[in-house]
Amino acid sequence: MNDIRTMRNINRNLFEGVPATANALDEYDSDAAQLVREAAQHLVKARRDNDPQALNEASNATFHAAAELLNRAGGSVYVRFPIMISARLVELEAALLVAGATNEAEGQTA
Question: Measured between alpha carbons, how far is 75 from 71 in angstroms, rounded to an integer?
């Protein structure tokens, strides 16, 4: 996975002029967005603490988010696509959580 700073540079043209508070997933499906945030929090905890239970919770929430997106999109959508999208969203959300925590820690030491 790319570093969050690299991803921001890659996606700059896509999000130029979009406010930082915008959340397309939240607007499309707030239930799926909540599950993605929950999965990301568990994923960060699992990686930080090497916690297999948190990793399992992250996996479960990711699959629930994928199911929510699949239900929203309709039954004709190929199943693996929402799962892959959900997993990617969880990874990005987790990277944002880590980047935010890093920025806060750097701000406190400065």
Answer: 7
How far apart are the C-alpha atoms of 35 and 63, rounded to whole Å?
9
Q: Which residues of the chain have pLDDT under 50?
A: none
* Spatial separation of the C-alpha atoms in residues 44 and 50, rounded to whole Å: 10
What's the predicted TM-score (pTM) here?
A: 0.66
| Main-chain phi, psi angles of 18, to 5 degrees | -90, 130
Decide if 40 contacts 90 (C-beta within 8 A).
Answer: yes
Q: Closest Cα to residue 59, out of 77, 38, 80? A: 38
* Encoded amino acid at 83, one letter: I
